[in-house]
Amino acid sequence: GGTVAKRRRGTGNGAEVAESPVASRKSYFRATTISVAMLLGRLGRMLQSGAFINHMWGDAGTLLGAVQMFLIRLFMIWPLKAAAPSAYAYWTWQLVNRLRGHSPAKTQWPHGIFPFMRAALSWAGRETLRAWLASEAV
Question: Exposed, middle or buried by CB within 10 Å (0-12, 13-18, 19+), for 119?
């Protein structure tokens, strides 16, 4: 940081020193930024450790409990129910192709940086989808 710009007020004897409005605004934004960063860090540690679970559950029969159960269904249960049939269909299709003797096609890597990057992103997306479907099927 830098030094805080100050100006003298009052009778001229130097007894009163006040921060300038610009320096005051800067220190306010700095303090706010630090407090927000600390809050985000605390929330991140709670999410990583799972400690937020101990503080978030509402009692059964309350509005908070009903909202929490709806959010769990919305973000965790229903997506799994929707993806599981497609995962089984995909892996069944892969198994049938392997039993028929079809091997997976080799990836042709194009020349040039932009076509290569596009092909690499496409390949990464396919592999990520394969891994996700494998985890859904298990």
Answer: middle
The CA distance from 135 to 83, in Å, is 10
Token pair belonging to 125: 């997306």
Asked whether the beta carbons of 116 and 66 are under 8 A apart, the reply is no
Q: State how far the Cα of 15 lies from the Cα of 105, in Å rounded to an integer.
A: 82
Q: What is the pLDDT of residues 78-130, one digit of tens each?
A: 877 777 787 788 888 888 888 888 877 777 788 888 888 888 888 888 888 87
Residues 84, 86, 88, 94, Cα dihedral to 10°: -150
25-37 b/e with 16+ CB inside 10 Å = b? ebeeeeeeeeeee
Coil vs helix vs strand at 121: helix
For the beta carbon of residue 134, count every other beta carbon within 10 angstroms.
13
Is this model's pTM higher than 0.85 or not? no
Q: pLDDT per residue over 60-79, tens digit each?
A: 778 877 888 888 888 878 87
